[in-house]
């Protein structure tokens, strides 16, 4: 089994249901994923990172929640090798789980801390 990090990016109409966020949180813990959510307004954004099987399992949970306007912006794929080397310092806290942000600006800031600002901007069509 590979120890390579994988990630995925999902866009939805919005993320407002606390019940669904609770399901996403439990899935992130169960599958040992790092998950970033942009919740509260449109668009809803979800970034997931972890081992390949973990990311695939977490994405499957999201798909079953039937979010409005679900769009898989970036299917599960390996995180670029140059980014993987710094995975210990990827967020302010190295623990796995869910981190919620209320604005795209905050979400983008975390993507930048992860070293993924160019990838994220390209996937979102900003570049």
From TrEMBL:
This protein's name: Uncharacterized protein
Domain of life the protein comes from: Eukaryota
Organism of origin: Eremomyces bilateralis CBS 781.70
